[in-house]
Input
Amino acid sequence: MKDTGSLINHYCERFTLIDEKEAPKLMTIEHELKTSTAVPKCGLMMIGLGGNNGTTVTCGILANKNKLSWLTRRGEASANYFGSFSQSVTVKVGMRQSKDPSGKKTMEDIYKPVKDLLPMVKPEDFVIGGWDINSMDMYNATLRAKVLEPGLIQQLEKDLIKMKPLPGVYNLAYIASNQEDRANHIKEGTTSQLIQQVQEDIKNFRTTNKLERVVVLWTANTERYYEKDISNLEELEKLIKENAPLPPSVVYGVAALREKAIFLNGSPQNTIHPALIELAHKQGSYLAGSDFKSGQTKYKTAMGDYLIGSGIPIRSIVSYNHLGNNDGKNLSEPHTFRSKELSKVSCLEDAIMSNKILYPKGQEHIDHTVVIKYCPFVGDSKRAMDEYTSEIFLQGTNTIVSYNVCEDSLLAAPIMIDICVFAELFSRISIDSKPMGPVLSYLSFFFKAPVTNHPEYVINSLGRQKDMLSNFLKACAGYGTEDNTMMAFDF
Amino acid sequence: MKDTGSLINHYCERFTLIDEKEAPKLMTIEHELKTSTAVPKCGLMMIGLGGNNGTTVTCGILANKNKLSWLTRRGEASANYFGSFSQSVTVKVGMRQSKDPSGKKTMEDIYKPVKDLLPMVKPEDFVIGGWDINSMDMYNATLRAKVLEPGLIQQLEKDLIKMKPLPGVYNLAYIASNQEDRANHIKEGTTSQLIQQVQEDIKNFRTTNKLERVVVLWTANTERYYEKDISNLEELEKLIKENAPLPPSVVYGVAALREKAIFLNGSPQNTIHPALIELAHKQGSYLAGSDFKSGQTKYKTAMGDYLIGSGIPIRSIVSYNHLGNNDGKNLSEPHTFRSKELSKVSCLEDAIMSNKILYPKGQEHIDHTVVIKYCPFVGDSKRAMDEYTSEIFLQGTNTIVSYNVCEDSLLAAPIMIDICVFAELFSRISIDSKPMGPVLSYLSFFFKAPVTNHPEYVINSLGRQKDMLSNFLKACAGYGTEDNTMMAFDF
Amino acid sequence: MKDTGSLINHYCERFTLIDEKEAPKLMTIEHELKTSTAVPKCGLMMIGLGGNNGTTVTCGILANKNKLSWLTRRGEASANYFGSFSQSVTVKVGMRQSKDPSGKKTMEDIYKPVKDLLPMVKPEDFVIGGWDINSMDMYNATLRAKVLEPGLIQQLEKDLIKMKPLPGVYNLAYIASNQEDRANHIKEGTTSQLIQQVQEDIKNFRTTNKLERVVVLWTANTERYYEKDISNLEELEKLIKENAPLPPSVVYGVAALREKAIFLNGSPQNTIHPALIELAHKQGSYLAGSDFKSGQTKYKTAMGDYLIGSGIPIRSIVSYNHLGNNDGKNLSEPHTFRSKELSKVSCLEDAIMSNKILYPKGQEHIDHTVVIKYCPFVGDSKRAMDEYTSEIFLQGTNTIVSYNVCEDSLLAAPIMIDICVFAELFSRISIDSKPMGPVLSYLSFFFKAPVTNHPEYVINSLGRQKDMLSNFLKACAGYGTEDNTMMAFDF
Amino acid sequence: MKDTGSLINHYCERFTLIDEKEAPKLMTIEHELKTSTAVPKCGLMMIGLGGNNGTTVTCGILANKNKLSWLTRRGEASANYFGSFSQSVTVKVGMRQSKDPSGKKTMEDIYKPVKDLLPMVKPEDFVIGGWDINSMDMYNATLRAKVLEPGLIQQLEKDLIKMKPLPGVYNLAYIASNQEDRANHIKEGTTSQLIQQVQEDIKNFRTTNKLERVVVLWTANTERYYEKDISNLEELEKLIKENAPLPPSVVYGVAALREKAIFLNGSPQNTIHPALIELAHKQGSYLAGSDFKSGQTKYKTAMGDYLIGSGIPIRSIVSYNHLGNNDGKNLSEPHTFRSKELSKVSCLEDAIMSNKILYPKGQEHIDHTVVIKYCPFVGDSKRAMDEYTSEIFLQGTNTIVSYNVCEDSLLAAPIMIDICVFAELFSRISIDSKPMGPVLSYLSFFFKAPVTNHPEYVINSLGRQKDMLSNFLKACAGYGTEDNTMMAFDF
Output
């Protein structure tokens, strides 16, 4: 680390408590927010490194690092971080008043890039590695993914061909049977041995690359739901000792946390059991998940804010998806799809529960269907077709149909970068002298089914998730938060 | 008025000033917010009373007042206020902490209906009247509109048939030539005389109905842009004296403000010139506008928040609309459409200007096209088809196509009710002993092209407009505003 | 019958035989087409009478018989037969040459309504009856269906309330378990007794109403596929004798054919086994099926003609549907959906097999997915969302997305009328002194999975199905068929 | 020419004449169809060679000639002629009866590629040349077009860079003012001189390349409608003599026909006046047009066949398009768009006129709107959004919305190839010893607004256009035409 100093800011939190008699009590609580300014050398180990997400993140970071340009049918393209909250979003940090040439007072909003708020890892500085159950080198894996332009891949060939994933933990019982062909590069051993092997991998990666921090990110296949609810660490340790066939994601999670790496889960399965949280807590490490919120569900939580927030009750949502990448293939079997479905259908619950005029007690049900189909021809170009039907004034109907086409991995990759950047940052922040976590709930914005430190309290509203993250970052950076009332401006 | 008391709350506004050196200065300013609790008997005079919006508002209020139900193809329907922010939206007013049966601390959000925050006019209590250039009674006008179900209209026949609009101010130079057939019920006279006649209408309406407050709402045809920029009241008075052919909306505006009525403009034309604002100020009255934001543009400003707020630069938006009601017919001529187009295309400007990573200086242009076509067969059932094309990671493309079907008037009517309810409320609120206005900028949420007291500062972002309105109402009601940082909750 | 005469026309069929050596042999074969002109008094017995299709057909026929008009939100509506090939389509019967005022030769096409080509039953003359597993009278069943406007249903109340379905044959093993609640009106007995009871119902209906012809039409729930392939009549009789639990549709089929009624199958299950065809043949009766082709599949076979017929290879089709009527509910279970899926996915096979340039041997596969979801809120208003992805020149891609909204029953009802009208007509036609049938293959136009007298030869192309039906009708009516070469016209 | 022989076939045309008394008269007329089998060496001169269509045709032909493959994001692609009727479509030429292993009679349809029916120019054998108002060489023009993949263009660089368009005829009065920048390579002179120069160009091209036949194809910008109706050749010659500023397309047409080249018009403007037809007739040459039917209109005429042919009256069609290529730019001005609009809106007229049940006399109107917008960001990737609203049974409504994305030039290029191939072929065919033409009406399938030899008689129905073309080709090739009645097969 280049610097061992800290940035300390004080922030006055503001919220309202409602007591039993419905009376509001306005609370203001002063906090000390301390951010270590020493940005560590950080490694990013992806599980599923050779998959579409893994190769896209890798190439995207290399393209940006080398400031590459390449030819496409549409003209010359060049590297960017579009779609990344940390790298491409700005937040309002305040207002400026001045005078125009005629002497009239004017005001304007001042925005600042998120990346400039606090010292964060630059994506280009991540050292990339990871595991895959398929042995293909990263150059050929990138070609196989069919996500990126040939003109870009060719420039990266030399770098990519040298990168080879470590052998992966594999258990066919947890993924779709159609993945069997792909599994040619796997670890063998008891559960305990597998954990040990992954720990060795992390250790080696850390040592070889002289890393101060490692982030382990699950971006591999969706696993089926794990039927057991491992409610405490003791139970988990017992299962490991007994050589119970744990889902691979749990094996990685345990290994990562034992190594004090940050563990992030980008797929929908229920990897983050209470026992894993307990382990993170014990180790002083961090975890977050689950399921990247990149496309249809992100749009859905924005639509929930929009419609329900306008007094319009959504009555049915039908969400169809099809895609032809390996994610779609894996999800084409019912037991893996079930995990995805569960992750996707509950995302409007907080919006519905918030409005008893539109959804009175006992009438909270909406027809909500999610379908994912495997359509090889479209490749990574995912198509989401949604229909939102709402009731409007005098029981008229409002129907909104949307058709969304996007390379699945191009939406996911920048979000993956965000999660890693912020997870590392949060590991350097303390609130009132206490470290954050162990669950990094402030990452809710990036997950379809956010896990929090309060199992009963989850925020899905996109607007509120974004407020939470932005305001927290601004507070840490010494900016206030805005209430937008504009009263002082005679608005 | 039933009550002459006041509700007084103190609110501590919070914002940040950025000085020349980019340093933040955190501001907290205490305000006294005083709301007169005496809800007046209020009249609503609509210009274009017999049009689709006018008849829908009228029938909707009557249906709710009488708690009507009616049979439709889909089963029994009953009156509601869906789509109304004031009547159907809830806001988070705070959190409650308690313990679950096992003694574990839990927390939950507490929401409250907007209508219960402060004493407001109940929509059913509005006394309805207004003007139309067509003489048809309200029963037949409602049938002509083809918006509502026969089963509802039949129950209202007796009430509606007695309601007849006052003759309207008419000037064919400002609307489409295809409206000529409809204009059989118009006032004659010099500009000055027309204003006088409208003033008499307002006076009579007030006296006859024993009203304490009158709101005059333009919901008639879109007029063409008025070429002159009437920059002060003196100039306006001079034009009136010279019998200049002012646009009818200006005639109504002047008359309403002279009568200390609140003047609201729901159409896109530039009625609200500086001179009109000056008049409102002088009269101690209020005005707001322009152009109800009910459908495509509202969605667009939500999409702007969603995409640009996710670091995804929108590069083109093509917005097609067609509808078959009289609004569509009037807009089928280029000079009236031009007003609408201007109102619709600039709604993403603040979002674009806020992000210099996605839109560097000189590259703020996006391809943005708005088309409105008249298609009689679809009637009031407006169809909006949009295509949003954005650049994503590594210059991939994200395309979102939406198709939105909705009865135009069923979306507009609840918003019209909102504007009137809040405009009346705001006329009873003072901030630090100063009345609000004269422009009611806090109504920006409801307008495509909001007019504010700061011509250079307009907020189009749907999320921010909503925050502004909600937070202001909560502050007046004695609730704090939330910063959503959740720090106190070890989130 | 009013008339015992016959209409005899001679038609010269024209086709080409290709021999082993690929040489064409032009064939012209003269046929005698004899149509009995005596239109019988005809009864229509629907299985599923109280369902959405059954009630819609019944009300539609009554509305047309009584030339009713009714008020809707959109204005006055009146009875029609739109969507019916027999009642609303015209066919080109020839050309007319004349001279224009200036003496110049002109030519024009002459079209004639299909219904005027040959003597057919008028839909209004059908005597309607049938069975249902639910006892609800037709008035309440029509309200339950939520298909038609209240203003129409109210006018038919008196007629409908008297109509009550006969108890139905019911076997939960063949439909979705969610239909159990509805089954309150069912026949009891051994398989043999059930057949007997249905035969009695038909006999009574015939006698009571003095009918000369009865058509029995299955428009009830989709059954699951029947696992046995009943390959001959002997086997079927044996199963009946052994009281094997036959699917209800087979029970009705056997009963209908034993009664010499025409049996038509509007649902996708494999009711029409070889044994049933043998029975029809033995009885001198007729049958046709299966699965009304009314919406998405009809469009798909038109799209196949359009795209493949333009040299554009479709590579993937994803067809999503959702609806909220009882058909959707029944299809929400996998075993009934399976029947529907099988019926829907093979409809492009003949188009694909016809073009070895686009689909070389071994490359006939296209990604083709069909999804049907139950969404109660949308009721009978079915929504079909399709995506067609095709390869074009130089391996570009053409993507066509369609969103189709239509009341399911309003599309099906006129087709049901067509099938009955033509089935009855075809029972009066002989080709070269031989009756048609037993399978009425010329009805292929109306079925998703047409059964023919040549199991190995099925036509799915919409264009060709229509040509076959139109040309056959024109030939019977004494019109020639057109080759559209226009050579004689110096075109 | 390799061969001076002829293929002679006799065909018995079949149609029905309807006399004044509505009685049908079945006509069978024997024709001698003679096709010269000597396929000439043929040149294709495109006007607008350097535009998107011109470069795409050129590269496509070169790619096929050299059997090229290239890498794309989606994997390896290779040259094809998808979308070409002549190269990629098959037609049914007859049936084959045989026996299956069990001795049972079977039958199957026999299909043959269109290109194998008669001796036609192979696209790869066209010698390509032409004109452009911009001087850019074909390599850079192809890059500018942004239609094709870099991996393909790079392989063609050496060929393309040598190809340079001849200077074009230019008159800004006939195209959009925004084309002015592009016009840096133009001919100067009087109208007569311009014609002369183009004739010289054709002569040189013919001589240099030793061509036996030249086809001149207008694929340049849409011109505005020419206000004069040049009703005979004398008048046209007079205008030329007087140096009237004729539209450039007319200048090319006159020059081409004077040179006995075939003149084809792919844009919508009214180039093909009676005078031009007279000139073609006099010269013994041929012409055809207008406006390539490749996308939205082709789909529309298929939808007309589908819906109206199913007894469903279309009541409104709203067709929105946007694109960002130079065609879109040129059409963004009202006077050029007007030509396009006229070409596009009348395409359902014959379908509407054919059905007096759905469209009784005086009620033939449908709401039909066509919009084209210029949206630079989407480039050549045209997006068509259509809404078809139809009335169905009992005045229900069927709404079909489609969204169609396709590279505009990739759809047009194969059709351009077809038109040239067939035009050349038809110039070698005589019917009853008379040459075809002068207007090649059998090409109607390829044009939005087909010109025929019978101005009052135009066929727009896609199905019928295709029948006409296919049946004519089959007849010339010695195959019969099929009536699809299947009577001989006991179907």
The domain at 42-81+120-292+410-476 of chain D is CATH 3.40.50.720 (Rossmann fold).
